Amino acid sequence: MAESNVVHLPSTGWSYLGGIGDTWKNLVSMLGTWKDKTVSQEPIIELLDAARLDALYRANWVCRKVIDLPAFDTTRAWRQWSANEEQIEKLEECERKHGLQRKLMSALIKARLYGGSAMILGLDGCGDFNEELDIDDVGQDALKFVHVVSGGRRQMITAGAKVLDITSPYFGEPSYYMRSNIPTPPPPGNVDPPEQFTMSTQGATLFIHPSRVVRLVGYEYPDIELSLDPWGDSVLQPVFDAARAAGAVSSSVAAMVQECKIDIIKMKGLSELMSTRAGAQKVLDRYSNSNMAKSVVNTLLLDVEEEYERHEMHFASLDKVMTLFLLVCAAAADIPATRLLGREPAGMNATGEGDLRNYYDRLSADQEVRLTPALNRLDEVLIRSTFGERDPDIHYTWRPLWQMSDEEKSQIELRKAQAFLIDVNTGVVDPMALKRGRENNLIESGFLYPGIDAAIEEAEKAGDDENVEEQGMPNLFGQKPGGDPGMTEGQKGGGAQPFGGGGGGGGSGGLQPPQPK
Fold first, then answer.
1. 3-state DSSP assignment of residue 31
2. Per-residue pLDDT tens over the stretch 410-452
3. Dihedral (CA of 186, 190, 194, 200) sign
4. Which of 31, 143, 464, 500 would give a disulfide with 26, using CB separation of 3.0 to 4.6 Å?
5. DSSP state letters, 120-177
6. Could you tell me which of 337, 339, 357 has the C-alpha nearest to residue 347?
7. How large is the average pLDDT for residues 125-147?
8. Can you list the alpha helix ranges (DSSP code H) found in 446-516?
């Protein structure tokens, strides 16, 4: 029989394939073999239940910020509808009526903490909760409420078996949701009971079709088909070890502070005195009085046979140790330390803007990739409930999370103005189209002239902008096509160039554009 290249190792159950492996091995140093302690390490998962998740969220500041910050940052700028002004006002009013911004943030917090949450849509005139929602049945003012409940580990709403039919549009979602419709006891003192939208008998078990629920998850399972439930993992699950280690270091440092200064006094016959109650009391009285009299200006009185020492503990590097463990928490949560810890960025000339930009870019991508598809069910109901029908031209975009400074906004507006002036000088674009485009640009920006949209509308009604094409460019921009404002007749002789400058040598005449820094 041919010799095998498998080395049978004692008791550990490991085998070594000579020259074959997915990591480095060295038979001389025995690294990567059964004698290497790291080889015996196995990954394990310590699942956090609802009680431990609640304790971490309520008692540990790092865990709470890990949950709250991304949910708050994702929803704080909210979204911008693309429609006419009247439609936008109605959609935003409907969002405010149902508190969608706040409720989405609450749903994200619950999903990140417990691994899942559900936004239940209450619709009037669209069938019962247990019936599949026909989106075409949603009429005006059909949306009555949007309620947020915890799923995942907390299970304030029970999810049914997963839909594993590959042909179903609900693949991977629960086949149903179940919730006990808890009755509200009547308030005392003749107080009017709160208004209730009864779509089911109070106290009865309420079954809800998945088409009436917006499901949000924390961290998705590797494979939803092999998972035990249709939710996800808590965001604290992979952060727990780092947060626990950081907490242990912080507690250890706090305990060390209690012993940062210790006074030591040596005396002859201490053991003999401490052996009796009376002797121990004499020792305590002796050094209590001595310690009470000791101060910056008073003298410590000692017997000739007594020795006094002071041991002090130094904390020169403990701040670096604590910072290191907190940085590991920030890395595990995928949140910049400047945002999670509120600390100044380290390093010469460091501002932390790069880290924050990457963080906001990741949240923006998450909005588009995960959040927008999840909210599609709610948005379709919202639009139909607002207008009674679906206008295909209505859509929205998420507002940018990174807020530019006034100086950055000024530089952008300056470049836009320069480009506009070049288009004016060339005369390629129709003057009226160019004017309307510039107006829209200023209205969308809102930085230079707040409220300019209302001012333009009032001016048009007053007839201040009548028959623009007949008046020509001088009345629009104060110059002729191809000429520069402020250019003299002598300067125009060399040929009009955008922003001035004579022909030939490119003289200094005419309007020179300001140069952005």
1. strand
2. 999 999 999 989 988 898 888 888 888 888 888 888 888 888 8
3. positive
4. 31
5. EEEESSS--TTSPP-GGG--TT-EEEEEEEE-TTT-SSEE--B---TTSTTTTSBS-E
6. 337
7. 94
8. 452-462, 468-471, 473-477, 489-492
Q: How long is the chain? A: 517
Lowest mean pLDDT across 207-211, 322-326, 329-333, 452-456: 452-456
Instruction: Tell me how crowded residue 124 is: count the other CB atoms within 10 A of its CB.
Output: 14
Residue 287 dihedral angles phi and psi, to the nearest 5°? -85, -20
Worst-scoring range by mean pLDDT, 132-136, 196-200, 348-352? 348-352
Tokens of 147: 């309620």
**Which residue(s) pair with 310 in the sheet?**
263
Which residue type is seen at 215?
R
**Tell me, what amino acid is at 106?**
S
DSSP string, 399-446: PPSSPPPHHHHHHHHHHHHHHHHHHHHHT-S-HHHHHHHHHHHHHHH-
CB environment 47-84: b (16+ within 10 A), e (fewer): ebebeebeebbeebebbbbbbbbbbebbbebebebebe
pLDDT digits (tens, 9 = 90+) for 388-418: 999 999 999 999 998 888 888 899 999 999 9
HSE-CB for 140 with a 13 A CA cutoff: 4
Helices and strands: H and E segment counts in the chain: 17, 12
Contact 235, 66 (CB under 8 A): yes
Nearest to 383 by CA among 94, 165, 162: 94
How far, in Å, CA of 53 to CA of 96, rounded? 31
pTM of the model: 0.74
Q: Which residues, at least 6 apart from 358, have a Cβ–Cβ distance to it below 8 Å?
A: 336
For residues 86 and 65, give the distance between their C-alpha atoms in angstroms, rounded to a whole number: 38
CA distance 335 to 355: 9
